[in-house]
Design goal:
By secondary structure, the chain is of the alpha+beta class. It has helices spanning 3-13, 66-82, and strands at residues 19-20, 34-46, 50-63, 90-91, 94-101, 105-109, 115-128.
Length: 129
């Protein structure tokens, strides 16, 4: 499990459907997905038994209609920001101890003509050594 998997699980539990954590699916496979991607761990401090750092996660909401992409992205960001993180804190090698979100914004129109709105989640994590 990863930070992206934890956020995707939270979104599914918050009644968002079609969440993917690996790739943006083809329009033939899923017309309106939510894609959650994860960056690399960036260490901020190291102690004897653990290290603390950040993992950047991007949540992309893909919709056929621009207004739906925007409203769903805003609702997803609100769900992530207001969530009780304890049930989702275990992210495999890391434990999420805090999050911060950016405001959703229009990202692009994909090759299928769908609208993509996105927001970032900065996860503060602790890794055991």
């Amino acid at each position: 499990m990863s930070c992206a998997d934890s956020i995707a699980k939270l979104l599914v539990d918050s009644h968002f459907t079609s969440c993917f954590t690996k790739v943006l699916p083809s329009t033939l496979d899923c017309t309106e997905p939510i894609v959650v991607t994860e960056g690399a761990f960036e260490r901020e401090s190291r102690l004897a038994e653990e290290e603390r750092g950040r993992v950047a996660v991007t949540v992309m909401v893909v919709r056929e209609v621009m207004a739906n992409a925007e409203s769903d992205a805003v609702a997803a960001e609100l769900a992530v920001r207001r969530a009780d993180w304890e049930p989702y804190a275990d992210a495999g090698a890391c434990r999420i101890v805090g999050i911060d979100t950016s405001a959703p914004a229009f990202k692009e129109r994909d090759s299928s003509g769908r609208y993509v709105w996105a927001f970032d989640v900065t996860c503060t994590v602790v890794r055991s050594l």
